[in-house]
Amino acid sequence: MIFSKRLAAVEEHIQAACRRANRNRGDVRLMAVSKTHPAALISEAIAAGITLFGENRVQEYEAKRRELPEGIEVHMIGHLQSNKAAKAAAIFSAVDTVDSIKLMDRLEDAAKREGKQLPVLLEIKLSEEEAKTGFAPESTELQTALERAADLRYVAVRGLMTVAPLHENPQTARQCFRELRRLREALAQEHPRVKFDELSMGMSGDYEIAIEEGSTLVRIGTALFGAREKRA
Ligand SMILES: *Cc1c(COP(=O)(O)O)cnc(C)c1O
User: 14: which of 113, 214, 224, 229 is 20 to 30 A away, CA to CA?
Assistant: First the structure.
């Protein structure tokens, strides 16, 4: 019940942001970030119409998925260590946080063994915060990754993802989202064989701004499920 109410409120905000930006509602996907929450709550979200989920730990999702119906789309949105690439490729529909060439290569091998196409996003680090992961926007590693991406057969790069810095000033997030969109446009010109359709940006605190700045996928946890308990 409470989930449906929160979902209705979020949906209203998404639609209002789309109207302000003159965008179609159908061009923005809503991902419910279900990390830390039990399978029962995910089932409630599915009943309310959610079809796309985000999880940030391989082991946590591996345990929960046994209790979930097939056919839902679940993306990995947390930092993924290369040694967990095989497991991640097996259980997730997509990995939205590819932050190194090494990880991309491991996922290619793993997806090949699984015999499946694995859509991925490249995570870009646009803030100075130490804890953030991702390719630096000006790095040669990012350029090399995109050159290699064009030749991968199982991993399919679909676009970019970023996490805006936590900041009281919403203009900081807006600046960050704008930068990601510009980067996407520049990279798409330089790498015509790679797809850049997806721009995953925006969380509970800043998704309306992200939509105004061109987000195609917002990742919303707290505004849908309530506050998360702190992890041990
Ligand atoms: C936890 C998380 C979210 C959701 O955050 P909320 O502020 O709860 O909406 C989105 N993206 C990533 C990468 C996350 O780790």
Answer: 229
